[in-house]
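YM 10:42: RcnB family protein sequence, as discussed on the call
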Amino acid sequence: MRRWKSWGAWLLAAALAAPTLANPPEGKGHGEGQGKHKHKDQDREASSARTDRDWVAAGISVAAARRLALDSGATGYKSLPPGMRKRLARGKPLPPGVAKQELPAPLLSQLPRHPGYEWRAVGADLVLVAASGLIADILLDVLR
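YM 10:58: structure's back
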């Protein structure tokens, strides 16, 4: 009789534990909603890495560009307002309403040349813009 009680207790414990061992329903149980979107985040990281390789870098440091600007007298530009400046980002188009100015010839002749790209002054920043209008690189406060 005692043997049957112990077997009964084991069966009861197994029956109560079974639902916790079952697989969660589809789309559930990944913990705080994070698991379902892992693949999208990985794809986004991979695509951004791909586009970073496609962009042309400025090819000059901010310090070197600042020296060239000082030597050629291309300084005194006013910075953009903070809200506009935040909208400048690599890989995005120039925001509408941003005044982009051509650079003085002495400075432009000393900057690295990239086919299909042009240097523009956007506020006090030196911006490399692709022919498509997308920003390839930004050198902050070079023309200040």
